Structure formats: C-alpha cells, structure tokens
Amino acid sequence: MTGWLDGRRALIVGAGSGIGRAVLDAFRAEGASAAVLERDAAKAEAIAEALPGVPVTVGDATTRAANDEAVAAAVAAFGGLDVLVNCVGVFDFYRGLEELDADVLDEAFAEMFSTNVKSHLHSVKAALPALRRSRGSIVLTESTSAYYPGRGGVLYVSSKFAVRGLVTALAHELAPDVRVNGVAPGGTLNTDLRGIPSLGQQARRLDDTPGRAAELAARTPLGVALRGEDHAWSYVFLASSRSRGITGDVVHPDGGMAAKS
C-alpha cells in the first residue's frame, strides 16, 4: 500500500514538538523523506536520537543563515526538495493593546512578528529555488486566531492575519510553479507554545493553563480538544498530489468553529 507522500522530500521548520513534530511523524508515515530545522538544541537532539537518518539543523528560523543551512542539508541528503512546512510560532497570552505598556510595544511587536511572520518569509525564500525546480508545495501555519475573535491577544492575532496574507500573496506570486496553502489549527494540546521575552512570558507554556483540555473542548461545536496529530493530516493532504488543484487556500482543523453560533 502506497503512502500519500511517497517519494516526497520535505523540510519541516519547527519540528521539535507539538504540531511540527506531529507533522514530521505523519510525513514519514506517509512515505516522505523529511529534514528538520529546530532552534531548541535539546529537541533537535531528541529527534536525531529517535529518528536516525533524519537531517536535523539546529538554528533560529527567524534568520536567513539557519534556513539556508537547513535547505542545503535537505537538498544534500535527498537530492532536492518538494515540500516546505513552517510550524514556528509564539503566543501573547491574550494580551490586549490596553494591557501592553507603551515602553515595551516596539520590542514585543518585533519579537512576535519576527517569529510568527519573518520566519515564514525566510524559510520560503531559502527553499524557493529548490521548490521551483521540483514544482513543489509550501504549507504555512496560520491559526483559528486569524478567522475568529478572542483566540489571542492583539499581537498574536495580527501576526496570524499576516501569515494568512502571506499564503494569499505567495500563492499568487509563485503560481504555477509552486503551490502555497495554509493550515489554521484551533486551540491545541501539547504544543509547547510559549510567550515572548519582552512580556516576561518566555518560560510560560500555553499548555500549562489549568483546565485547558476542558476549556478547548467546550469552545468547539464538536466538543473536542485537539492535538498535533489531529492537525498533521491536513498538512499531509496539502503536501500531496491529491491537492494538486488547490493553492492560496486554508484547511481549518478547529473543531468546527465555522459552525459556532
């Protein structure tokens, strides 16, 4: 029985935990060869130990150098690149504009948009020559926050709107050679999603919020608290030939938020 991604060569940015790690496992299960870019050295080491043969680059996805290195490692290992996935992100723990001190606004904005937006631009820029050669596919990580209010603070929500814009702009720019789509997960368990340093949130994990599983289930029409594994198959579909007629679009694995009254 063949996999949905047999023969595909992928680079997954931010695959150390949460959704990114679930995507890595799902891609491999469906027959893809996958390389990784991960900032956290301990997470990168864990991947290398658990998955011998997976090229792992340790580096900051917000920089050109790290993305160039990761793409080069993937191409060297696999002979090319067919799929780029970016799952990098940070959160702001629902901080509204009135709750943001004016003296930290510049730094907080830079931190949020560097991680949530600039990392996507750098990863696409680095991978684009290889993806054009293979007529490949890009899958960026949006969020339900870019479609429904109250799913984050002012910086997080606006950064995810920016990723939504990247999907639209890049799909138009790169057609017909490269398809570009997004996945917009709803609230997710076991993501290791953290806050930003300027707000003193970097040590805090969203997943540590008391009662989070019950809260996530209660907010969705399907009554489910989703995990990375639930989202990963949306990435698989968009990376596969089964979605070859789709670009500039988004899949919403969010428990049915569109049906909420």
TrEMBL record:
Belongs to the short-chain dehydrogenases/reductases (SDR) family. Keywords: Oxidoreductase. The lineage of its organism: Bacteria, Bacillati, Actinomycetota, Actinomycetes, Streptosporangiales. PANTHER family: BENZIL REDUCTASE, CHAIN DEHYDROGENASE, PUTATIVE (AFU_ORTHOLOGUE AFUA_4G08710)-RELATED. This is 3-(Cis-5,6-dihydroxycyclohexa-1, 3-dien-1-yl)propanoate dehydrogenase. InterPro entries: NAD(P)-bd_dom_sf, Sc_DH/Rdtase_CS, SDR_fam. Gene3D superfamilies: NAD(P)-binding Rossmann-like Domain. One of its GO terms (molecular function) is 2,3-dihydroxy-2,3-dihydro-phenylpropionate dehydrogenase activity. Its EC number is 1.3.1.87. Pfam families: adh_short_C2. It comes from Actinomadura chibensis. The gene is hcaB.
